[in-house]
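Technical appendix A lists one of the benchmark inputs used to test multi-chain prediction within the project. The record comprises two sequence entries:
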Amino acid sequence: MFSFDSAPAKNPTAMSQLRQRVRTFLATATSDISPVSRAHTWTGFDAEFSKQLGSQGWIGMQWPKEYGGGERGPEERYVVIEELLAAGAPVGAHWIADRQSGTLLLRHADEAIKQKYLPKIARGECYSCIGMSEPNAGSDLAAIKTRGRKTDEGWVINGAKLWTTNVDKAHFMIALVRTGDGERHSGLSQFLIDLSLPGVTVNPITDQTGESHFGEVFFDEVLVPDNCLLGEEGNGWQQVNEELSLERSGPERYLSSYRLLEEYMDALKPNPPDEIVNLVGQQVCELWTLRQMSLAVSGRLREGHKADLEAAMVKDLGACYEQQLPHRIQAILGDEVEPQKKSKVQAVMHYLLDASPSFSLRGGTREILRGIIARGLGLR
Amino acid sequence: MSELQTMLEEMVARLLTDVATQPEPWPIIEEFGLTRLMLPETLNGFNGSWQDARIVFELLGQHALPLQVGETIIAQKYLYQTNLDIDQQLLSGIIGIGYCDNVVIDNANQVVSGTLLDPAATSYNGPVNKLLIETICEGQPHLLLVDANALQENSVLSEATIFFSGPLAKDQPNLLSAGALLRSLQICGALTEALRLTIQYANERSQFGRPLAKFQAIQHDLARLAEQTAAVQCATQAACQAADYDAAPFEIAAAKLRANLAVPDACSIAHQVHGAIGFTEEHVLHHFTRRLSTWRSEFGNDRLWSNTLGKLALADRDSTIWQFLTARGDAISESNQ
């Protein structure tokens, strides 16, 4: 049915040493970041920090050295990213390029593209975004209408993408585009589109927190070279799905509200009443379980197994936890915390109350995930 | 799972299927040697770890076996570890486990009285011949093996004959935790079976001209049931790894609490999808859902374990909860190499 059998990490002694190195680095590199900024986790943008991380060798860790990678194992990358997220380091600039676009280029791009982009990404100097949703294609991704037309000079792209995270700061987009006459899932292809090309218009969109993490982009007769078609023409749907299991089970899928738990626990007076102790106990229990689940999925992917179903479960349960945590703290917050620390807790809490509706929208809505799980259970 | 563990799973699954139709299942189970799972080979045991026991305890839940097999396995292990030369006669029969912090021991007559914090024998779990009780003697955790005939209603023990008495061996879960780990694994097994039954029913039963499984509302409820089951699978597995490393007070508390938290939604979804037929005595669903509800209370309800966890999490205010979780996790996976 589904399996969460987890293979233990290889060489964990090296893992705990690596964990310490990351913590030591972060203690200096993030020393002046406020709790609310930390609560932004992978939506926090800091170009300078990304460069510093690149020089540590902590971007593109698993890629071949010839493309600027570190040829490290997936366990090591997992340790680094969970430490970055738990600390609330501003990893947003390079996050998507490191997590999925770089890996996709390694798998599906030609040599020239790999040479051009991967070393820059690994240095923390080149950012990407994922062009999936469109004005009339949100959860129903197969309804996309953006088109690629083959010409003698290359491919000409026309259309629009919407709700694209990082679009106003990214250097390139990996876009899902219709290239064939087929319906729905067929006739789709993936393109690398340099966002500085003529005919590209990018507009950031302000979200309800007053910040702009996503935006819209219009393509008007944008000419891209032939080698920007990634992988096989018409194979876009399958390539996108391979990419999604990388996107859905990582620690970013349960740690988005972690900052609040840490700040709240830090603010508690000595010997809090049982009501508070019990609340903390339950939050910690769920956090621990989600980490075990996320680790188990990463173990399965590492061993070369498919884990779409398991990844969807981690993301759905993780988003529910991330969304409930600020509400639970809000319901109970009172005189159990030190007065001088209360405003800090409240600031993080209110930021997360405002930001958290997006947690079950981004990267696949709750409804889409439950549909994937239902299919995995043999119901559809 | 190792090859040996896969074999163990197949053998025990077959045994539990076979005994389900037998009028006297206990002698068959004893003859098979299942109760000696965690005893050393010198006592004809399997020398099983907690990770091996996980397989058996989960199957006990999946088969809703109304016998205290898991309790007896744990009792035999703990008795042996307390006294390596223990009289094997003491290990025989069905042994329940319990926890009691208010015992009065009458040394002259070798009898004990007190109230068990957990009902060791309930109608679901089946009868017991003896009880292994953990208590505190002179400030130290202590085990007493007593005659279960002295167990009255309301978990009161009145002048029960003491068969054996000895200190709890160190570096292993206390008996309350061991019972909690057993129940969380039984909950895991029962959830797995309730999920299987519910998926099967949703695919077979048609209304409005199509199987229930084709309705999106039903699909999403079943997805949630599967998620709860998966969370408990993961939590219990990690807790067993931890229990093979040390006493695992944090991980066992977290596994039992996570299992408890899964129960209400899981039972509600399983029953809702089954409709009226699932509420009948004739249907098998209640073998699992009613046990799930009972097991949530046994060996610690949500309040007890969330309090334990909260205290552990807040014990060292100089380190963050993230540092605590990762330090435990790294130490356990290092020991697993």
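Chain A touches chain B through 57 residues (CB under 8 Å). DSSP finds twelve helices and eight strands in chain A. Comparable benchmark entries are summarised in Table A2.
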